[in-house]
């Protein structure tokens, strides 16, 4: 004799998600007598004893908590809506509840068959002083957190989630779709900027609407320490609009005006940090970008000393993309680009 046991499914094992308790018969379409209802939640009860209370319109109901069988019930001729109420043990942290709804065939006689429903109606977990009602569970998550200390940029790390949207103190941080991978097999984005203006010192409310199989306990609030700044500007870039203002009439001021309207590289370290080292500087036709760069076939040998003179020890510096700034034109007739990478300390 051989015995076969089916693994009790948890929320992670499911593929059909909804923000309500689905009607049994319309969901299974008579392909099965059984339908699993699963969810997970964080135990933040202050009570020591717990009771699972479930009402159902199905013929049979079996209940499992954290993979262990906790009880079952069924209807009768007199009781059309069976109630399961049983004591349960909850973990500190994440708990999984799996409810198996069962039908013994479908109703085939009587009036108003189109109005007949089956499946689970209500789900509640009761403590001695508190009740959690999962009947209209939104399948979302929320928590409170304190703002990180300091002035560094704040990010919401959603690497452990699937697809949905996030809000902090009622402000949308944006939609996320971490489970959708790029051709390189990685998410296009996992960290989302949280403006410090959105945050209070304490008790900031984070709300997550998760549509897929995310793991909310993996979410973190991080800070980004900016240690490098980079600028990559070519002669074809439009100059800042602010430089278009102030038309001067004298020849001397016209010279300043034209200088002001040239494209510029501007480097800016975070507050409290200054430029301490120029990691790369090339005026000419450097290859690559701020992530991966190299000197090209055209390069001014005064690039590094010119940038060091303009930027070292400063928090903010601006360098025009202009051959006279670098002493001469290293390769006449070739459009010029200025690429600078600097370290902030």
UniProtKB/TrEMBL annotation:
Entry keyword rRNA-binding: no
UniProt-listed Gene3D superfamilies: 2.60.120.740, Galactose-binding domain-like (2.60.120.260)
CDD domains: Gal_Rha_Lectin_BGal
Domain of life of the source: Eukaryota
Keyword Signal part of the UniProt annotation: yes
Keyword set, alphabetical order: Apoplast, Glycoprotein, Glycosidase, Hydrolase, Secreted, Signal
Subcellular location: Secreted, Extracellular space, Apoplast
Composition bias, Basic residues: 255-264
GO biological process, one term: carbohydrate metabolic process
E.C. number(s) listed in UniProt: 3.2.1.23
Catalytic activity annotation: Hydrolysis of terminal non-reducing beta-D-galactose residues in beta-D-galactosides
InterPro entries named among the record's database cross-references: BetaGal_gal-bd, Galactose-bd-like_sf, Glycoside_Hdrlase_35, Lectin_gal-bd_dom, Lectin_gal-bd_sf
GO molecular function, one term: beta-galactosidase activity
One Pfam family it belongs to: SUEL_Lectin
Region span, Disordered: 245-265
PANTHER family, sorted: BETA-GALACTOSIDASE RELATED
Family: Belongs to the glycosyl hydrolase 35 family.
Protein name according to UniProt: beta-galactosidase
